[in-house]
Amino acid sequence: MVRSGTLILNAAARLLLPLQLLFSLFLLLRGHDEPGGGFIAGLVAAGGFALYLFALGRRALSEMLKVSPRDLVAIGLLLGVVSMLPAWWVGEPFFTAQWWTIPVIDFKASTPLIFDIGVYLVVVGSVLTAITALVKTDQEDDAR
Amino acid sequence: MQLAVLGGFVVAGLAPLLHHWFGARTPLVMALLPASLAAWLLGQWPAVASGEVLLLEWAWVPGLDITLTFLIDGLAWLFAMLITVIGALVLVYSGEYLRGHRDLPRFLVVITAFMMSMLGLVLADNLVTLFVFWELTSITSYLLIGFNHTDLAARKAALQGLFVTVGGGLALLAGFSMLAVAGDSWSLAELTGRGELLREHALYTPLLVCVLLGAFTKSAQFPFHFWLPNAMAAPTPVSAYLHSATMVKAGVYLLARLHPALGGTDGWMITLSLVGALTMATGAFLAIQHTNVKKLLAYSTVMALGTLTMLLGIGTEGAMVAFVAFLLAHSLYKGALFMVAGILDHETGTKDVTAMGGLRRVMPLTAVVAGLAALSLAGLPPLLGFVGKELMFESVLEASAWRPLILLLAFMAAFLTLAVAAIVALRPFFGAPRETPRAPHEAPHAMLAGPALLAVLSLSFGLAPGLLDPLVGATVAGIGVGARESHGAVHLALWHGVNLPLLLSLASLLLGLLAYRHWDRLRALLARLEPLMARGPEAGYEALMAGMVAVAGWQTRMLQNGQLRNYLVMTLLVLVGLVGHALFFRHTLALDFSLAVYLHEAVVAGLMVAGALAACVMRSRLAAVAALGIMGFSIALTFVLFSAPDLAITQLLVETLTVILLVLVLFRLPRFATLSTPIERLRDLAVASLTGGLITLLMLSVLAGERLPRISDYMVENSQPLGHGHNIVNVILVDFRALDTLGEMFVLALAAIGVYAMLRFHAEAYDARRHATPPERDDG
């Protein structure tokens, strides 16, 4: 049921995915000051991938993603844990936020941002894990 | 020292690597670790002997007042010395006993880890540290009893030992917590100085009960003695080390250590001396029913542990001297005897003493060692065991409570132990030679060295007990009985003159020899008691375990029956109960019914209600989902109306994803069915109304007044200056409450993995079934 995308859906998915990903990144980065943030951005990105999956199938998605969604979850958790370490390095209590300014582009990097990226990856990874697992069994059922 | 102990764990972990380099010589290499620790301890002897208490400070978790400080006084020194010296000997011995065994590296890892845990236990000054090491010894003991993990009996015995000791450990943790509260310190060095405060404290009785439970289970006191003989499923070096010389003495050590803090009250004295005497008699009585040499020795260990507890209970200075002498004597002879038992098993292939005979011709050296050690066990001169037994009788005559009963039990234990000693030392080595499963040879040197050294020590300390005076004095000072100045006044002697203890010894010798001569008949007689024995404490343990499993099964069927509706009902009822209790009993209800609603707000709320109602009455799944969707979007709309854009976006996205997930699962679900009876639907209605009503009340009462200072004010004020962000929701999520978010990330990840695993393995099982059913097609 999922493989048979129509031409319009296929084309739309291909065109929309980059836009949705760009939008999700935008939401992720502005999240600290404007509505947005890792959770919302992750949901947007997952929605984009889900559309792509419906249009072109699971194999096309995994070929494009290159990494398994479960690995995304793992990387996200790792980033979440890593983001609390810099505070230890400067001798402050566990999880104290650290802020640095990257000189040339005047971008404010921080451990909360790293943490938010972790949230983003966990959300994308979790949703995709669930959806691809469901689709996978669907296709196996169809094959029989 | 702390570094040495912690490093010892690292060395334990390196054992497989060492085994790769040194092969069969690895145990010898690893024996260097306890040997060098023993040498270091020996270097501290002058200070310890002069009555000094060494405190090696080391902060561990300063915020919680947990330290890794080690305390070395006479008591700790004696135990540490026994652990390291016997540990080194056992490692050398096990190299030969387990030569070529596939799992030798694993054995070395665990036994070295045990050694370090035990050392940490007797040296620790902090209660928490002591407890951590205490539990570590239980766990390593579990791994060692179950060393032959393919054997069901070994696994069962290991689990039994673990449950009993760890169950006691749980009580001990409670006892320690109360002790720390009552004494206002976690440090043993400080607590032992506050005995009067502790004994007067209201918590004294409960904390004593908990601490004693911990110590009694660990040291296999009646009625918890049954796990120790079962633990003999372990390889013999383990039995020699853990289950006679060291671990089972941890409970006794703890009692001795806490004696100045808790001892001296009637409760302490009566409990300890009665339980100890009972254990002593039970152990000796059960011992002579067995023909398995390891079981014989195990029950006599139970007897010895009972003796030690009883002596602590009597509590006079003479009893403490007897305690130390008996402890040392027992560690020496029992270690030696267990290693001899291992040699017999190794050489003849059987553990049954009635199947052996005449071995003194083929194994003369082993016979001599066994004889010496058994003489000490029997308490005959000129060995250290005799000194210990005489002192024990002397102390029993000093006992203040229940003297006749304790004396009777002690006498019974003494003569039965003598019979056990005779059985172990005479049965295998004398009489006519017998066919054994393996043709016996003299044991290799590495296996004989340990028991021989221990037996010779028993003999020389017995001939010159004066050598032990300073050690016994320092240890008794560590237990804190008698004034510090009096130490050095302790004199051990082999010959006390003709007195009551000597007469008791003589009588027990005669009775014991009689029991040995008629052992076979005695055993047949005792075998008739079997049905009574089967109702002992072990049956209680079995019943308890079976009951626990039954209750677990019942409550799993009740709570986790696989029906989502039941889970929901349970969760909601708990929510209603807890929130309702807090709302009605902790606060006074003040409701605010002033309704000032705009029309568009009322419309949105009406949509929500309509969606919920529709979802309940719809007869088609798709329609119900659509109705729920209406509700979801109305909620998002509410967020927009009350200017919470973040929440609104999230709600919308979640609704969208729900649609995606539903598209995926909708076709796989069975037809829409009504699964509940009308009564169940009424129950569900009641639960739903309760929940809804309560939450409404909660909302109204929250609106009615400012009960608590608003935490959101803090967030609003500090979001920019502290969190460098204008979006308060996000700052809370990733900065103020980042730890919570991290926890939620893990929950989300777990949920995803759960979904994956469930679908994946379900599909695989389905596959397997499909491929199994039509085999003809493959052939065709």
UniProtKB/TrEMBL annotation, chain A:
Main location: membrane
Superkingdom in the source lineage: Bacteria
Subcellular compartments: Cell membrane
The protein, known as: Na+/H+ antiporter subunit B
Membrane topology listed for this record: Multi-pass membrane protein
Keywords: Cell membrane, Membrane, Transmembrane, Transmembrane helix
The keyword Transmembrane is assigned to this record: yes
Annotated InterPro entries: CPA3_antiporter_subunitB (IPR050622), MnhB (IPR007182)
Organism annotation: Halomonas gemina
Keyword Cell membrane among record annotations: yes
Residue ranges crossing the lipid bilayer per the database entry: 7-29, 35-56, 72-91, 111-135
Family per record: Belongs to the CPA3 antiporters (TC 2.A.63) subunit B family.
Domain Na+/H+ antiporter MnhB subunit-related protein stretches: 8-129
UniProtKB/TrEMBL annotation, chain B:
MrpA C-terminal/MbhE domain boundaries: 680-767
Subcellular location: Cell membrane; Membrane
Domain (NADH:quinone oxidoreductase/Mrp antiporter transmembrane) ranges: 124-416
Chief place where the protein resides: membrane
Superkingdom, taxonomy of origin: Bacteria
InterPro entries: CPA3_Na-H_Antiporter_A, MrpA_C/MbhD, MrpA_C/MbhE, ND/Mrp_TM, Proton_antipo_N
Keyword list, A-Z: Antiport, Cell membrane, Ion transport, Membrane, Transmembrane, Transmembrane helix, Transport
Domain MrpA C-terminal/MbhD: 607-671
Listed Pfam families: MbhD (PF13244), MbhE (PF20501), Proton_antipo_M (PF00361), Proton_antipo_N (PF00662)
Domain NADH-Ubiquinone oxidoreductase (complex I) chain 5 N-terminal: 58-107
Membrane topology: Multi-pass membrane protein
Transmembrane segments: 6-22, 29-48, 68-92, 104-124, 130-147, 159-181, 268-289, 296-314, 320-344, 365-385, 405-426, 446-468, 493-516, 567-585, 597-615, 622-642, 648-667, 687-705, 745-763
Protein name: Monovalent cation/H+ antiporter subunit A
Organism: Halomonas gemina
Lineage: Bacteria, Pseudomonadati, Pseudomonadota, Gammaproteobacteria, Oceanospirillales
